[in-house]
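2024-03-11 09:14:02 DEBUG pipeline.ingest accepted 1 chain
2024-03-11 09:14:02 DEBUG pipeline.ingest length=244
2024-03-11 09:14:03 DEBUG pipeline.predict start
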Amino acid sequence: MKNLQNKIAENMLFVTEFAVLVFCVFLAAYLIEKRIDRRKGERERILSTGKVAMIGIFSAVSAVLMTIEVPVPFAPPFYKIDLSELPILIITFAYGPVAGVMTELVKILLKLVIKSTSTAFVGELANFMVGCALILPAGVVYLRKKTRSMAVVACAVGIVCMTVFGSLLNAVYLLPKFAALYGIPLETIIGMGTAINPGITSVETMALFAVAPLNLLKGGIVSLLTVLLYKRLSPILKARGRRG
């Protein structure tokens, strides 16, 4: 915990930027969900006591899954795949985008307590923002019409958004920010990609040949498992979500 506090103090500006981005994503999710609920004539609270309890449980499962990272052969070693978005996408389908974003945030906080950070919080921000790029669009689409076919459409939309947004975020912000925070030349980071794939010669090609395939793979696996598992879990989640 002391190590985590030291890292926060050392990177206070970036942590502040992180907090502002989290607030903006949460606000967007809240406003969108409220608007859809009004159109559908629903008056149920966005976050009941029962929902918050389930968010806590699924956040814990997701945080554990986040610590289990698997490298991929087409990307540098600092890019790894995990399935932490699986419980979050399930919660999002059950309770809506706000619950999904909250679960994503609690997952990151729990992971920091469990494992701290090895990337000056850049990796955690990337995981949060790219995860939200999957669950927020998917949650919004599914919230409009909750059918199995719409769940498939929602997942497809989420995968596309996650891939495009994740690639742009890495190229424009995350890779340069990581290099600046660690005092590493950006060319050195790109060189790690070139060693894996000679086609990677810039931040743009890093995003195209490493980040995009990674997000497509992760999004595809998470979405497939969600479609297979959600209908089995939804009766339990809905029943517990109504309590409180």
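2024-03-11 09:14:41 DEBUG pipeline.report The first helix runs from residue 2 to 10.
2024-03-11 09:14:41 DEBUG pipeline.predict end
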